[in-house]
Structure formats: C-alpha cells, structure tokens
User: Fold this.
Amino acid sequence: MNIFNKIKKSQLFTKKSYYGALAICLVMVGVACFYSYNKTTNDLTKRMEYVAEKPVTTAQDEAIGVDEKKDGVKKEKTVTTVTVTEKTAKTEAKTEISYPKQAIAETSTYRSFSIPINGEIIQDFSGEELVKNQTTGAWQTHNGIDISGNIGDEVKAMAEGTVLDVFEDHLWGVVVVIDHGDGMTARYCGLNKGVTVEKDAHVSKDEVIGALGNTADIESSMEVHLHFEIIRNDMYLNPIDIINNQG
Assistant:
C-alpha cells in the first residue's frame, strides 16, 4: 500500500509541476506581448506627431534648400499672383468696341455740326475695311468721306474752332486742320492754294476757310471733291455719323 501511495503522490506532483510551469510560461508570454504592444504604440504615436509638425515641402522648396546650402544665403520665396476678373474683362471689351459711338455721343449731345460743302458723297468712310483706291489701285482704308463739288466752291468750317495747321501735302494737296474742341480735329483736304485762314486763327461755324480745288494727287482720278476727315482722341470717326447725330 505504501508503495502505491508513493507512486500516486509522485504522479500528482509531476502533474502539478507541469501545470505550474505551463502557467508561468503563459504569464511570461502575456507580459512580453504587453510590453511589445506598448512600445509599438508609443513609437507610432511619436511618428504621427513628427509628421504632423513637419511642414510639407515641394520640389521647389527642396531646390531652394539646395541653393541655400550651396550659396550659404537664405533665399526668399517669391509668389506672383495675377487675377483677371470676368467683370473687368467684359468692361474692357465693351469699352474697346463701343468707343467710337461713345465719342460721337459725347460730341453731339451739346453741339451741332454742318457739312463743309454741299454735294454728293461719292465715297464713304470705310472704317477698318479695306477698299480699292481708284487712283493707285491699292487696297487701303478710307479714313474720311469724299464730297463732290466744283473747283472754286466754298468750303466752310463744320463748327467753331481753332486752325491748327495749313499746309500742302504731296498726297492730299492743300490741307486745313481745325481743332473743334473736346479732342476732335477735322482735316479738309484737296483745297485750292488760296485759303482764307491762317494757323492759330479762330473760326466760327460755317465760316469760309477756302475754296475747293483738285490738289489731292492720291485721289486725282476721281471727280473734283473734298476729302473730309474727323479724328477724335487719335481715332478716325465717320463724319456722317458726327454730322447726323446732332444734339
């Protein structure tokens, strides 16, 4: 009996030792896993905080950084911003397109103008359209109107003004230029040489400034006529529009 009891006690002790060792191993594995988990979490948190605090760099920033190291001088970043609003673009386009009409309206609201010579208009103002010159055969813009008449017919000032110049041009013949105010000047071309006004003279509306001739060589193949131009703020305007839009 004693031997049997000893064997049972020995087996019982062996089982207890086995389970005890197993429990110790499980505890050690758990501690190791817990420690590893904490360390990984702490490392990950630190990396996220570092990334969040670090400024984002672009290729341009890196290039600037390389230049700074090379030259030993800190370079400033330049940012150029160009803003064009749709409203501004539309306003500019509207001003450019509508300017001639605006110029005519501003001129004719408080002043009236008369045709400088009674006659038929034999060639119209062409604006930007090219027309064939009957004398030279060249295609060009016609910046005024041609009013037919007879040599010696009186040519009158279309409005009050000051004579800016009287001269003889190799293309347009005898020319009288009158400042009619508000940035508007008129050119009376193809006159006879015996004009009745001088430079700086003041003229009234419908005052005779000279007589019609045939001195404009550039349009000499046409019948006798007055070539008449109106310029406002460096832009040619249609004389008929100015005269017809009286205030």
About this structure: The CA atoms of residues 166 and 176 lie 5 Å apart. Confidence is low (pLDDT under 50) at residues 6-10, 50-109.
